Amino acid sequence: TGTISSLQRQLEIQESQLRRTKSEKEMLQRMLRERENELQAMSAKFCSLIEEQEHAELMVTMEKENSSLRQVVTELESKLAEQNKLISELQGTVSQLQAEVLSSQHHSRVQQRDQAALQSQVETLQHKMLQTTVALESITSRFERYRNKIIQATFSTAGSKPPQAELTDEEVLEVMQVCGSSKLCFQWPARDSWDK
């Protein structure tokens, strides 16, 4: 956004300079037309005075004025050429700045789309993680209830001593294997009661 604002300010400055240069060009063109009109007027005056007695003196005066006017016209044409060159350069700069502004705006839009996509992915992963956590807690709870049922069933048989401390999963498995090898019977709880 800062880059776009800077480019837009540069663009406004260049466009202002371009307008000012075009205005100067128009002024120079007006001056050139005025000098050409003066030159034509002087030529007409020369034609009207050609029959007078001061013909020779007027010829010298008119020649001097014509020479002066031609010099002014040459200078104005030179300045006009310089102004045209400057206008062309300014137009190129303005076009370049406009392209940079468009490029920066496009880059900004792409970044916003990417950020929105990443945010959506994060939200999806968070939702999946929450679902996984809930499912894990449910499975863990069911496993603990199932484990407790096994322990209760194992140590509820005749002659079994209740454990003095909390049993590990390996110890529970070992007790179940001993009960199975000695053909001891115990009542399994109904399957539909495992989750209760």
UniProtKB/TrEMBL annotation:
Keywords: Coiled coil. The gene is Ccdc27. Residues 4-100 form a coiled coil. It comes from Crotophaga sulcirostris (Groove-billed ani). This is CCD27 protein. InterPro entries: CC-FHA_domain. The keyword Transferase does not apply.
